[in-house]
Design goal:
alpha+beta; 5-stranded mixed sheet; 3-stranded antiparallel sheet; 17 helices; about 40% helix
């Protein structure tokens, strides 16, 4: 095992692996730059919450600055001349992955052959004939929502006793089961609704037909996770694609023998770690310097594994969406704020689209940080964020030690 890596080295390795050490563009963001970020992160976790901006759009903004979100839409859902480069599957939860990686999840598709969740599996097992009908509709009509499929099959909705209408949900569950099994893939519309289609029509017949051995798939996914993380424990590597640690350990052994991974010890970490052969240790946080900031999604790959975020950045984070409002510590949908090579603050954000205002219900410096030193770059980056979202103004509410300074700076 090599000598210890220190905490600053580890943070910079992690940031470089995730693309934060790359130079930000000075002009318009191109698809080539989008591809560069995807090559770094390997995936974008998805989330339906649209309180500020949906989670899968933010990693590109965090690394590249303002960009045209239609670039990501084209890569995943509305391909033009260049073709689709991303598709959705259960990678780290629901995530956009490179289309070329679709076959690597064949083992998971086999595990989910009747669906990911118990109720979905039960629905599939009770409704094999209906599933065949759903498949036939999609084969005939192309991408479709569950409601559109019901209409084609003549399935009527039934009134609840209390009034209104109730969709029994079998078709939706069947579509979800066939998506999980890899029989269907999905695209999204502007309202983020899933449209299911045959997988071969979304990812291509050649890729849909590829079979990769389970052991080989795990080895490749662990290698990808290691490249995206730079330096990682077995738990970190397992979490990136939600693999079982029992499957990750033999893959790590093979990758060490192949020279892809090097065992290392990290100061302050209890578990041993592994350094990817392609990892770099930048001499500074980024090419933008110590005042380069980035507003992160709570589901950014840099921080989505909370134990790793604590080990690497000393950053304790818990999502508070499901916490009653009066019990929330920081807010409803709180974004970590990266400055240089450290996470120095967290900020609760909400886009008031009717008024064209970015609201900041709360802004908090992390313990030990100089709030005055954090406020100015955060105000700058909030202005950029608001402009990117088409918001003409920013309103800072009263919660958090950074709020008064932000109000003075933003005006």
């Amino acid at each position: 095992m090599t000598a210890d890596l220190g905490s600053t080295q580890v943070r910079r390795i992690a940031l470089a692996a995730q693309g934060f050490a790359d130079r930000r563009p000075t002009g318009a963001v191109t698809m080539r730059l989008v591809d560069r970020v995807i090559d770094r992160t390997k995936l974008f976790q998805m989330d339906s919450v649209n309180i500020a901006v949906r989670a899968h759009y933010l990693p590109l903004f965090s690394r590249l600055g303002p960009y045209d979100r239609s670039l990501l839409d084209r890569a995943a859902w509305r391909p033009g001349r260049g073709g689709r480069t991303l598709t959705e599957y259960w990678a780290h939860e629901a995530a956009l992955i490179p289309v070329a990686d679709w076959p690597l999840f064949g083992f998971r598709m086999a595990e989910y052959r009747d669906g990911r969740y118990r109720h979905t599996r039960d629905t599939m097992r009770r409704n094999r004939e209906l599933a065949a009908d759903v498949r036939a509709v999609i084969a005939d009509t192309g991408p479709a929502t569950p409601r559109r499929i019901e209409e084609r099959l003549g399935i009527e909705r039934s009134p609840r006793a209390s009034g209104g209408w109730w969709n029994r949900g079998e078709v939706k569950h069947l579509c979800e089961a066939m998506f999980a099994s890899g029989e269907f893939a999905a695209t999204r519309d502007d309202a983020f609704g899933r449209h299911y289609d045959l997988a071969e029509r979304v990812v291509g017949a050649d890729l849909a037909a590829v079979h990769i051995d389970r052991i080989e798939a795990h080895r490749e996914l662990v290698a990808r996770a290691a490249a995206a993380l730079g330096v990682a424990t077995v738990a970190d590597l397992a979490d990136y694609y939600r693999l079982k640690a029992a499957d990750v350990r033999p893959a790590v052994t093979e990758l060490v023998e192949a020279g892809v991974l090097e065992p290392v010890s990290v100061s302050g970490w209890r578990a041993g770690a592994y350094l990817h052969s392609g990892a770099t240790v930048p001499v500074r946080a980024s090419r933008g310097g110590s005042d380069r900031g980035a507003i992160l999604s709570p589901f950014d790959p840099l921080v989505f594994f909370r134990p790793r975020a604590e080990r690497v950045f000393g950053f304790h984070y818990r999502i508070e969406i499901y916490v009653p409002e009066h019990k929330r510590v920081h807010g409803y949908y709180v974004h970590p704020y990266l400055l240089g090579d450290d996470i120095v603050a967290r900020v609760d954000l909400k886009a008031d689209r009717q008024r064209g205002v970015l609201r900041v219900p709360g802004a908090f410096a992390e313990p030990g940080q100089d709030a005055a030193a954090v406020a100015a770059p955060l105000a700058r980056d909030l202005a950029t964020f608001a402009s990117w979202l088409g918001m003409g103004a920013i309103e800072v509410d009263g919660r958090g030690d950074l709020a008064p300074m932000l109000r003075r700076l933003i005006g």
